[in-house]
Amino acid sequence: MGIWQNRKQKNYKRRWFSLGTEYGAGSQYDFYAEYKKYLARDNLNMMKGYCSVSYPLMLMIIALTCTAIGWKVIYILPFVAGTAVIAVLHILLARGVGKSNPVKTAYLMVTIFNVVWYALVILYEAILQPHEPTIRGCLVFVLLAAIFNTLPLANMLGSMLAYVVFMGSELVFADAAVIRMDSLNILLSIMAGVYISWRNTESNISRKVYTDMYKAATQTSIIVAQVDLLHGTYEVLQSPDYMVDVLQTNLTTDVALQRIRDNFVAPEYRDEFSKIFDFETLPDRLDLEERVSFYFQDFREMWCQLVVVEEKRIRGKVSAVVAIVRDVDMEKRREMEYQKQLSDAVEEAKLASASKTNFLRRMSHDIRTPINGIQGMLEIAEHYSDDMEKQRECRAKMKEASGYLLSLVNDVLDMNKLESGTITLEDRPFNLMELLGESNTVAEMQAIDHGISYVIDWDNSHIDHIFLIGSPVHLKQILHNFASNAVKYNKENGTVTVSSQELSFDGENAVFRFVCADTGIGMSREFMQHAFEPFSQEGRDSRTTYAGTGLGLSIVKELAERMGGHVDVTSEPGVGSTFSVTLPFKVDTNAENTAKNDILESIDTKGMRALVVEDNALNMEIAQFMLESEGFVVYGAENGQEAVDMFAESEPGYYDIVFMDIMMPVMGGREAARTIRSMDRADAKIIPIVAMSANAFSDDVQGSIAAGMNAHIMKPIDSSKLKNTTQDVLRMSSMKKMTELEK
Fold first, then answer.
1. Of 520, 522, 500, which is closest to residue 511 (Cα–Cα)?
2. Can you tell me the mean pLDDT for 15-29?
3. Residue 503: C-alpha distances to residues 500, 507, 509 (Å)
4. Cβ(40)–Cβ(103) under 8 Å?
5. Which of 448, 523, 521, 514 is nearest to 481 (CA)?
6. Rounded CA gap, 145 and 137, in Å?
7. Is the N end or the C end of the chain the one with fewer CB atoms within 10 Å?
8. How far, in Å, CA of 119 to CA of 137, rounded?
9. More confident position, 696 or 549
10. What is the largest CA-CA distance in the chain?
């Protein structure tokens, strides 16, 4: 055992490092297979020591045997044969047999070695000296069972079998006293053998883990070196070809370190590299830390990591270290990219927080401004209660303030929908000329109110296809935003010029450009880069009282991109701005059906009965006023259930139309509409049902249509919109009644 221990102390740790450099960087490394080869070679080397020890043991056994039972050839011959077998094994091991397949060779050699000693010990102890109790045989068994690392389990099983044969022989040849003594010795030797084998296995596992960890580290390492801090020497265990001349073996550690610093490390990291690798302070730093680590770039601008770990201590002081330079370029760049993304995210969060704060501050100001105007005009109107001219002036200003307040709320809601991705574009037929006519009418009225000339540039307008399929609501919203901004930011007595042009047609889709130019205050070149960002406003130099939220152009840009188009702008401070949007639309091939309702005459609503379902008293009063102005007789219901009951109790055809709020107690408007449509009576499927709701998004409209309603009017209710929608649904109902009569 002493020979093996000395060998272990001398070469054990060096073996760990050399193992990591035996294979090329690109080889496939099998930890289990390589570890078995390593231990097998280790065991073959150890067996040479055991073979050399076996010769004097053989001579001692021969001498004891001959002394005890006489000098007879029959007793001496087995020991001579065993000695010959051990000698052959020794010669084979000395010649390095088993290099090509050390594992199989180790299995064979260990088995032969064990069989020889088991046979000789059993022959001597159990047969030649059966009446003399001894523990020598048991100790040999323990030795053979514990010394070999490659086959610990096989050795233990072989030893147990040898014990059984040994005890069987003694049962035949020995007396009871010897059997009892040897049984006790065997029990103790088994316990000792298990303990020794367990310790060897634990040591082997620890060695394997260390070897595997080292191999894994060296696979990504550029330089690996052992440094003796006491003597100032080093040994390079791994290095690239371009560092061979730099790291010569006859250099001191200080010189080698200086050459690595000057030839391998990038200039900006050299000073820090020298501080980290200061051999005078390194032992003290390793007392405080498990390892010293430093990231730097090499001469190729590739990221590396220097890691220095303790290898050995003398009298409690670190005397030797292992220095590893690893290639960590990919992981370092990923980490830097992650840090950049994290920094950008933090910066975006700060900007978002600041934007939110600015938004709330601006909303607070912009909402309070029109509310203050409305309240102020109410007080003025109350003060001049007998002055009708003053009353009209106050109402006009309150209408302007409430209109601005409504547009403000709509912009905020639209922007929220766009940012969350929940806005839904329509895909329905529409007449482009009618849409442009309505848009121009509204814009012209707004321009006249502010003393602005509104001009339609017919010379630059050319449209071949007027019946299209798309999202007319959002197209009208884009055009309204352009015209509104052109009026709002124009000069006194300025001009707004609009034009529409069909750019191309591929047989199915047509592309249009809509242009709005003004002679207003314009935008600076710097601000134009941010014009389409939310809440962007260059200044408050517009001529109107209510300047806006800075959301309009952001909404236009988002809508245009969702619709497959794009927005362009040119501007010059003090001269004006020109906005244009280019959008594709599918051409409607069933144009005749789309225009059918245009030739129908207006329906007389005087005396018609309208059922208005509204839970808010103020809204009920407004709706009743507007409908009675058109000649309707209005009947009210406070919730959907009451409306269903009133309709069910009425005679068929009693009500001509139903106006239904959506969000109500007891029963909502959509459920009430579905209930009415499901009734088994003639007018349930024909009567027009119009939704009147503050839910203003396109998916809300679709929800109303899906519930069986004919149209959806958004609150606050516009009287002209109410009138046009009522005419449309009554015409449709009239056509259905005519169709039913024809059947």
1. 500
2. 33
3. 10, 13, 11
4. yes
5. 514
6. 12
7. C
8. 11
9. 696
10. 153
Q: What is the mean pLDDT of residues 81-98?
A: 83
Share of the chain above pLDDT 90, in %: 14
DSSP label at 229? T
Tokens of 22: 């035996």
**CA 285 vs CA 278, 417, 660: distances in Å:** 10, 59, 81
The pLDDT of residue 418 is: 56
pLDDT band at 39; cut points 50, 70, 90? low
CA distance 340 to 348: 12
Residue for token digits 């109902």? 733
Once rounded to an integer, what is the mean pLDDT over residues 346-355? 78
Residue with tokens 């200044």: 539
Would you call 127 exposed, middle or buried from its count of C-beta atoms within 10 A (0-12, 13-18, 19+)?
middle
Beta partners for residue 609, in sequence order: 633
Q: Helix, strand, coil proportions of the chain in percent (round to 5)? A: 60, 15, 25
Question: Which three-class secondary structure state does DSSP give residue 273?
Answer: helix
Q: Which residues contact 327 (CB under 8 A, 6 or more apart)?
A: 220, 221, 222, 302, 303, 304
Q: What is the pLDDT of residues 446-470, one digit of tens each?
A: 788 788 898 888 888 888 888 899 9
Mean pLDDT of 354-379: 73
Q: What is the pLDDT of residues 693-702, one digit of tens each?
A: 877 666 677 7
At residue 337, does pLDDT exceed 50?
yes
Residue 186 tokens read as 């065997």
Residue 8 is predicted with a pLDDT of: 32
pLDDT mean across residues, the chain: 76
Specify whether the CB–CB gap between 522 and 571 falls below 8 A. Answer: yes
Higher pLDDT, 295 or 21: 295
d(CA 145, CA 153): 9
Query: What pLDDT is recorded for position 12?
Result: 32
- The closest of 282, 325, 279, 274 to 304, measured between CA atoms, is 325
CA distances from 466 to 437, 443, 500, 589 (A): 12, 20, 11, 11
Does residue 643 surpass a pLDDT of 50? yes
Dihedral-angle region of residue 708 (phi above 0 means left; psi in -120 to 50 means alpha; beta otherwise): left
201 vs 215: CA distance, rounded Å: 21
- How far apart CA 246 and CA 236 sit, in angstroms, is 11
259 SS3 class: helix
With beta carbons less than 8 A apart as the criterion, state whether 547 and 540 touch. Answer: yes
Q: Which amino acid is at 271?
A: D
pLDDT of residue 543: 40
**DSSP per residue, 193-211:** HHHHHHHHHHHHHHHHHHH
Q: What DSSP assignment string belongs to 93-153?
A: HHTTTTSSSHHHHHHHHHHHHHHHHHHHHHIIIIIISTTS--SHHHHHHHHHHHS-SS-HH
Measured between alpha carbons, how far is 239 from 221 in angstroms, rounded to an integer?
8
Reading the block at residue 740, the tokens are 């039913």
Query: pLDDT class for 474, splitting at 50, 70, 90?
Result: confident
Q: In the structure encoding, which two tokens stand for residue 733, read together?
A: 């109902």
Q: Are 498 and 512 in contact (CB under 8 A)?
A: no
DSSP state letters, 687-727? S-EEEEES--SHHHHHHHHHTT-SEEEESSPPHHHHHHHHH
Contact between 430 and 470 under an 8 Å Cβ cutoff? The reply is: yes
Contact 95, 110 (CB under 8 A): no
| 44 closest CA partner among 95, 106, 128, 118 | 106
Number of Cα atoms under 13 Å in the Cβ half of residue 248: 6
- Measured CA to CA in angstroms, residue 488 lies from 65, 311, 535, 546, 577 at distances of 124, 79, 16, 9, 12
11 is written with which tokens?
Answer: 């070469």
Q: Which tokens is 559 given?
A: 């809508």
